[in-house]
Amino acid sequence: MRHPRLWRAYANLATLANGLCGAGAIAYVVLGNKLFALALVFIGIGWDGLDGFFSRRSGLPPNLFGRVADSVADAVTFALAPAAIIFFDNYPRSAWAAYDGASLAVAVLVGGLAIARLVYFTVRAHALPHFLGASTPQNALALALLVLLLQNPAYLTLSPPLFLVLAALLAIVMVLPIPYPKMRGHASLRALVVAMTVTDVFALAIPNFRPDAGTVPYLAAEAMAIVAMALLLTFYGMGPWVARNDAVQKDPSAPRTGANP
Predict the structure, then answer these.
(1) Using an 8 Å Cβ cutoff, are 153 and 203 in contact?
(2) For residue 33, what are the β-bridge partners?
(3) Could you give the 3-state DSSP secondary structure of residue 246?
(4) Taking the domains of the chain in order of start, what are their residue ranges?
């Protein structure tokens, strides 16, 4: 039997777990463990996906409580936690001291735009067949990879200005009228997301053990972080094309290019 209310309860628990991951990430950032905070944000992305899966399994129509609760949890994990990751514990201080003001400005921008996007989605955009702008979990994942590549452990290079500029640009993509598809029914995108998930697990987990530079674990984590970012950028590029192609298939008279309504 389906037990719709039981599946709905599972969905609510997944939403709660997502929010708790975000709260834990903020706490770890304040305590100075940014790497573990990144891992918690990634786990929160998993709970957010399970929330939607359990809700669909219930067969019950979406309700306002679930939508609002999901957005509140997302605001903690994918808006406030990323803002805290940008602003707090920027190491080494000798490199970041001159950018404290810029870090605060970008943190406010990232958190503010993420919350604005969630509010818009909760009130209106939830009815669309696609996402409008990059999703907040997508942005949080991109930020986590930027931290690994440009901040700590800085696999590519330690560059506060580049990190802050890219974090701001990615945040703006969340509120641009660019369509991104939902995963259901897109085998090619699901394969991309699965590959990205596998590489992300290693890229975010290994640095928490703080391997020495040049060791096999360090080089493996570095390679995984680079591959994960490449896959994520591929998704950024493919997503709008797939969403517009879906729109054309459903309505042949729909334009193939241009902004979404």
Answers:
(1) no
(2) none
(3) helix
(4) 4-250
